[in-house]
Amino acid sequence: MYDRWSELEGGTHPVLKNILTRWNQLVHKDGVREQRLHRFLETHAHLFFREYGFATIVTKLRFGADFVSDFVAVHDLRSEGILYTLIEIERADSAPFTKEGHASARLSRAIQQVLSWKTWLVGHPAESAKLFPSLLRRLEHPVFRYQIIIGTRANTDAWTDRRNILAESLGISIRSFDSFADRLKESFVFDDLSDIHNEERLFSPEQRNRLACPFFAALSDGQWRELLGKKPASASFICEYGEKLLQLRRENRFARRFRAGD
Could you give the number of structural domains in the chain? Predict the structure, then answer.
């Protein structure tokens, strides 16, 4: 008997509604520090970071001398290679633009941080390849994308067009914290079994069901490095690392609630 993760689609399942309610309360409460938002996202990483389907999420990944990405979302795009989205989060109560329409100090710092990441990745290909493997032999480098999460719809709406133009010019996605709940309710697909090419011959249905579980916390920096401990032999992320992922990943308490029918 499999866990029916597909019941979560549409955002009406009681467990998912509970999580979304808690998230919205946190996002729209004044004075909530970045660390609290980070802890919530870290706990529910596999719910909130699934824009391209099945993902592996890493929290506080360190690279270079002193860089730390709040989150890295790892998606296997099959023939397109591995996509790494490096994410910087700010505060929800911090408007990304001033009343005059200028980028706020907090947004400006976040942009400079992400641009520094880009510069390091380009300038240190050997070190980058160890931490962000491509897996596909015909693609020397993986695909990198960058995202800044700042503000809410309420403190951003007046400048949404300007934000989007800025984001496009920089090659950095800039989104509000409300976007997490929107996508979770309206866009994300939940499969009962993980659906990655060729994995059915490597994993049992029970393992594929566990891999598809959305109630996992993010991997730590140390767990990610442990996962990458051996040289990859497969072009598929999940085929290469799926068994180890099942050992390393930690379910949050909402997995038990889902199974209990709460």
Answer: 1
Residue 148 confidence (pLDDT) above 80: yes
Quote the tokens at residue 222: 């140390």
Secondary structure element (H or E) that encloses residue 248, with its range: helix 237-248
The pLDDT-based confidence of 78 (bands split at 50, 70, 90) is confident
* Maximum alpha-carbon separation in the chain: 58
Instruction: Identify how many contiguous H helices and E strands the chain contains and give both numbers.
Output: 11, 5
Residue 61: both structure tokens together: 């990944």
Phi then psi for residue 85, to 5 deg, are -105, 115
* Residue-level pLDDT at 25: 97
Q: What is the residue range of 61's domain? A: 5-260
DSSP state of 187: T
Report the first-to-last Cα separation within the chain, whole angstroms: 18
Q: Where are the alpha helices (DSSP H) in 28-96?
A: 34-43, 45-48
| Average pLDDT estimate for 37-66 | 91
What is the Cα–Cα distance from 250 to 43, expressed in whole angstroms?
9
Contact indicator for 149, 89 with CB cutoff of 8 Å: yes
CA 90/CA 151 separation, integer angstroms: 8
- In the block, which residue shows the tokens 């989007």? 164
Q: What does the alpha-carbon distance between residue 158 and residue 94 come to, in Å, rounded to a whole number?
A: 14
Question: Which of 93-97, 122-126, 184-188 shows the highest mean pLDDT?
Answer: 93-97
Residue found by looking up tokens 């029970």 in the block:
206
